[in-house]
Design goal:
84% of the residues lie in helices and 0% in strands. It is mainly alpha-helical.
């Protein structure tokens, strides 16, 4: 289980670097959502299910929806 946590942390580092380097805003939002889901998995591994559920709901769910709606409203997503 320790190897899994280390791999997830390395993946998180890669995601955090890539979300700031991506030029396409929609792609950055998707990477941010994946980052939040990985964080939820890590919170569950640390025996903090309340934080895991909150991270999944707020970080990956509500925040992603708000970012996508905002991007659509400012015409950042081309149809």
């Amino acid at each position: 289980m320790k190897i899994f946590s280390i791999l997830m942390l390395m993946f998180l580092i890669g995601l955090s670097i890539s979300v700031s380097a991506i030029k396409n805003l929609f792609s950055a939002i998707i990477v941010f959502m994946v980052y939040s889901l990985i964080m939820a998995i890590l919170w569950q591994q640390l025996n903090a299910p309340d934080l895991a559920i909150t991270e999944a709901a707020v970080g990956a769910g509500i925040t992603t929806v708000l970012f996508v709606l905002t991007l659509k409203k400012i015409k950042g997503v081309k149809k």
